[in-house]
Design a protein that fits this description.
105 residues; alpha+beta; 3 strands; 18% strand; elongated
């Protein structure tokens, strides 16, 4: 990557880059799978706010959301997909590019 492109923000994945979605991706990358309430406790926010961000990640194919029941109670679990894990790795690599010191001209 040349020096001009090294700081070009346009190739940053906007789906991941939002604060809540970034937190979700970071947590799921380590946890593998998480229940909705666990995820909500870890990343903060409200039910509605987290639901909106999960939907955006799901629409991008980055997260799989599964709704089942535990007894008679609804249970929502979330996990990164392979596409999501690859996107996360690419996002981290891109952020590392921003952090590398660049040679002065």
């Amino acid at each position: 990557m040349n020096d001009e492109a090294a700081y070009d923000y346009r190739d940053i994945d906007d789906v991941i880059h939002g604060r809540v979605r970034l937190s979700v991706m970071a947590y799921l990358s380590g946890a593998g799978t998480a229940e909705f309430n666990e995820l909500k406790a870890k990343v903060g926010g409200t039910d509605g706010n987290l639901s909106v961000h999960l939907r955006k990640l799901e629409e991008a194919g980055y997260v799989k959301v599964v709704k089942t029941f535990r007894g008679r109670r609804p249970l929502t679990t979330c996990a990164l997909t392979n596409k999501g894990r690859n996107a996360w790795i690419a996002y981290i690599a891109r952020m590392e590019e921003f952090l590398k010191p660049k040679a002065a001209e």
